[in-house]
């Protein structure tokens, strides 16, 4: 049977954060699968289960680069829904119940969570989280650390993540989703992310860098949306209302990972 959900987690070459997330994902719905994508030069897989759950863990190798690794994970996924997580993401007690309710609703949307930063960085990172959630809710621009949840068929039609982008592949995916008329939906539960980059590189420097890079990438996208929006261009960035419920589906994407637990 095709899984309802595939969780895709790309790993950096020196990734040390994945195991913490892995232990939390045992509470996923039975039959879900987790695809961990390691960077490398050859393709392969290593399938195993975690704890005593029915969740399959499949490790594959893909060409280095977050966009390439995310796309490779999506190609290997069998689930009807894809949930993209960062290795340093952590689940809040409300994250999985909200996710399960969202999937049960079956809405054809791109879902995202409320960002919170873990206590491994400066307290000012809370300001960044407030700003990110404001941007997502009022301007329709969530970013990848908010845990995108999208029907697999929709992700394929959008063309996946832009592997040519030097940064901001998550940002560009949202712009393409909006251009394709795919509504955004706030799932309404926190998802935690590491704030260690603010501690390592400095809060002001990191915040300024992200603002500049985001604006540089958003400007041509906004101009394109405005030129294509015509009289409705003023609403180009506003989240669209949800459509009537529908079940997302599509042809199963095959790979050689199988459940081994019972």
Description:
With 262 residues, the protein is of the alpha/beta class. The protein has 8 helices and 9 strands. The chain has helices spanning 18-24, 66-76, 95-105, 125-139, 152-158, 169-179, 196-201, 203-229, and strands spanning 5-10, 33-39, 45-49, 56-62, 81-84, 90-91, 110-117, 149-151, 184-193. The strands form 2 sheets. The protein has a 6-stranded mixed β-sheet with strand order 3-4-2-1-5-8. Strands 6-9-7 form a 3-stranded mixed β-sheet, with helices on both faces. The protein is globular.
- The overall pLDDT, averaged over residues, is 85
How many extended strands? 9
Helix-residue proportion: 25-40%
- Uncertain segments: 230-262
User: Main beta sheet: strand number and arrangement?
Assistant: 6 strands, mixed
Identify the notable features of this structure and list them briefly.
8 helices; six-stranded mixed beta sheet; alpha/beta; about 260 residues; disordered C terminus; three-stranded mixed beta sheet; 9 strands
Task: Compile the SSE list and pairings.
Elements: E1 5-10, H1 18-24, E2 33-39, E3 45-49, E4 56-62, H2 66-76, E5 81-84, E6 90-91, H3 95-105, E7 110-117, H4 125-139, E8 149-151, H5 152-158, H6 169-179, E9 184-193, H7 196-201, H8 203-229
Parallel strand pairs: 1-2, 1-5, 2-4, 7-9
Antiparallel strand pairs: 3-4, 5-8, 6-9
